[in-house]
Amino acid sequence: MLAQRKSCFLDKHDLIHLAFSGELLTTKEARRRQLTYDKLVSGSKRTSALLVVREHLPSGNACLRINIDATRIGNVARFINHSCDGGNLSTVLVRSSGALLPRVCFFASRDILKDEELTFSYGDAGVNPNGSKCFCGSSCCSGIMPSEHT
User: Fold this and answer.
1) Is the whole model's pTM more than 0.85, yes or no?
2) What is the separation of C-alpha 49 from the centre of its chain, rounded to a whole number of angstroms?
3) Most Cβ neighbours (<10 Å): which of 3, 84, 97, 128?
4) Are strands 62-74 and 81-82 parallel, antiparallel or unpaired?
5) Where are the beta strands (DSSP E) in the chain?
6) DSSP string for residues in 79-115
7) How confident is the model over 83-132, as pLDDT tens digits?
8) Which helix (H) or strand (E) holds 38?
């Protein structure tokens, strides 16, 4: 009897063995760079890879802000594109024993087929209505890349 072939490349909830990495920035430097990146990408298909992550307490109050800039230095995770429909990956902050900062890791949010593009939502597009154009192509595309006034 032949084994049945797996129909998907990654199953829902599978860990993608990849963490978003880059330069750790102060909030002041992240804000300065975001202003520079906004000027550079205006009217082009170029984007930055500046990720602002907030870790929240169960009460909902922000307790930690991490600014990771992978625009110039980072790993392959910086090439995971945005999708307004939420994409097929979710980001999860993972803490390792003894580590000061959590890692931003990716999990499959649904079954992912072989050769399917990996995408995740960069955030809420409504925060900065003058942001860069979005080219994700999803049926619910807002037309604007998520960004904020960091």
Assistant:
1) no
2) 8
3) 84
4) unpaired
5) 15-20, 22-25, 50-56, 62-74, 81-82, 89-94, 103-108, 119-120
6) GPEE-TT-BSEEEEEEPPTT-SS-EEEEEESS-B-TT
7) 999 999 999 888 888 888 888 999 999 999 988 999 999 887 666 666 67
8) helix 27-41
